[in-house]
Amino acid sequence: MSRILPDELADRLGTDDEPFLLDIRPASEYERGAIDASRNVPVYDDLRAGDEASLRRRIDEIPDDREVVTVCKMGLVAKRATRVLDDAGYEASTLAGGMSGWNGYERGSLGYKIRSVWWRLRG
Q1: CA 108 to CA 102: how far, in whole Å?
Q2: CA of residue 17 relative to chain centroid, distance
Q3: Alpha carbon distance 31, 93 (integer Å)
Q4: Torsion angles phi and psi, residue 5, rounded to 5
Q5: Which of 16, 45, 49, 100 reaches 20 to 30 Å from 72, CA-CA?
Q6: SS (H, E, C) the chain
Q7: Nearest-angstrom CA–CA distance, 55 and 25
Q8: Which are the contacts of 70, defined by CB distance < 8 A and separation ≥ 6?
Q9: Edge-to-edge, what's the strand order for the sheet holding 68-71?
Q10: What b/e readout covers 83-100, taking b as 16+ CB neighbours within 10 angstroms?
């Protein structure tokens, strides 16, 4: 399963290679803060509970002509969304660290820098 680091995603935003950003968090969390240009399909709670049907029912809302990057709180539940999309024939990856990782990247936090090194070492 593929993943993308926050700095790698940032480099692609606003370019011809910009992926479709699928934010699966609940609408209330999405409204408190999200990555520009992301689209909210709030299936987080269902996926976390093991119910993939809610995402499958909404899959027609997701374009299949470019890579899809799934986003959640920490990146864990988004992995399940990425797997569902992979199974449906999409080119999909998970944002490493989710919104927590993205926010750390934007702040330039030490925690993000340490996690980024760890993610790169893990490959």
Answers
A1: 10
A2: 16
A3: 23
A4: -80, 150
A5: 16
A6: CEEECHHHHHHHCCCCCCCEEEECCCHHHHHHCCCCCCEECCCHHHHHCCCCHHHHHCHHHCCCCCCEEEECCCCHHHHHHHHHHHHCCCCEEEECCHHHHHHHHHHCCHHHHHHHHHHHHHC
A7: 12
A8: 22, 24, 78, 79, 81, 82, 85, 92, 93, 94, 95
A9: 2-4, 92-95, 68-71, 20-23, 39-40
A10: bbbeeeebebbbbbbbbb
For the chain, domains (ranges, CATH) are 2-122 (3.40.250.10)
The structure tokens listed for 78 are: 């988004």
- pLDDT per residue as tens, the chain (123 positions): 699 999 999 999 999 999 999 999 999 999 999 999 999 999 999 999 999 999 999 999 999 999 999 999 999 999 999 999 999 999 999 999 999 999 999 988 888 788 888 877 876
Residue that has been written with the tokens 């340490």 in this structure: 114
Q: How far apart are CA 58 and CA 42, in angstroms?
A: 10
What is the token pair recorded at 120? 């790169």
